[in-house]
Amino acid sequence: MTAENDIPEHPVAYDVVVAGGGNAALCAAIAARHAGASVLVLEAASKFYRGGNTRHTRNMRCAHDAATATLSGPYTEDEFWDDLLRVTEGQTNEQLARMMIRESKEMLDWIVEQGVRFQPSLGGTLSLGRTNSFFLGGGRAMLNALYLTAARLGVDVLYEAEVVGLDIDSDRFRAAIIRQRDGTTRIRGKALVAAAGGFESNIDRLVEGWGEIARNFLIRGTPNNRGTVLDMLLGAGVDSIGDPTQCHAVAIDARAPKYDGGIITRLDCVVFGIVVNKHAMRFYDEGEDVWPKRYAIWGRLVAAQPDQIAYIVFDAKSANLFMPSLYPAIEAASVAELAGKLGLDPDRLSGTVAEFNAAVRDGSFNPDILDDCRTENLTPPKSHWARRIDTGPYYAYPVRPGITFTYLGVRVDHDARMMMKAGGSAQNMYAAGEIMAGNVLGRGYAAGIGMTIGSVFGRIAGRGAARHAAQ
User: Fold this and answer.
1) How many domains does the chain have?
2) Which of UniProt's keywords are assigned here (predicted)?
3) What is the mean pLDDT of residues 185-206?
């Protein structure tokens, strides 16, 4: 858009203006400041709620060649690539993805240099002790460390500063128009880094792609990611990438709030039981693969079920094998009683459990590997971790699709510069994090990759923006 003449100018012009306040934004801001640029971060949320979805994270996935004090073994670039290729089913930009993986090896040291600390993974956290580094104190502690470093370096931050307009001339950013409590201001900058997230909290926008079923979705993260910056960029001629219906969607506790339930509402017990819909029927292989590579398909699976609701059913043998939800599991002395508490048909649920139990073939149960406990002559099968549900008390969690972030975003090049529909890359506009995640994630997800995308491309974008500003 073109700025209106009557919008007052901010008294300071910056080398780099960063739209967003989460991990990607802060990595970009810090990298740009290290490179000598003056930097302003525009965060739409208040200081308490700063950080977008990063507040709800707890780990990041990075390649590394050897075990460390907090990682139990090596995770090579090739293994990372194989994992990404598998979960995306090939829908990824290989050049950018391999660059991200290669750069991720440096991030563990770089992020520590910015004040972030790691800890060994906790028990029941998706078996990620070798591949993913867990933040000491979780995502909020990680954010606080980055903000502290940014402040020490001289990065300016404006809170409750919503970007409501972008002054873009062809492929060149000139200024951001922001709205705060005391009015609207135009802030000039030599370069822009867009790190303002996707559009997952814009329910009407989700409905455009998914239909009315999207009104039953829960949003795991911030209510501020409404896609406004994304829409401005696309409207200004930036090229798009990704499918509006592809997203990071997991099964979360159906009792969670509409927004901001975070990671404590996620359910990681699918592999230890069975999942049924409102008709008490199973609909997918709960033990298809190790959980870190499959947990993010369950939001989409539940979205396809009647009324977008499902129930994870398990028994006492599995009750202590996973991190529980914020809400207690629903408990009963029998499967039929459990069905009644869930509002399901008791005969149907009892029949589904009995059919499953009869198909189980015993093996050596091991929650940490692809074990040999499976079913036979059952549709859908359960390929691993199949154990009879026969030991009371019996438990269940109701689940709905929980949307973390969307994949439709801006297309970028290897310097994290936005690419234009008319061809070529923008002069001075860069992107990092969820707003460009579709370049790497065409579909699917593996735990911790979102933080990898944010930190790696954030650092690349910040450095690139600072270089442009210095020219």
Assistant:
1) 2
2) FAD, Flavoprotein, Oxidoreductase
3) 97
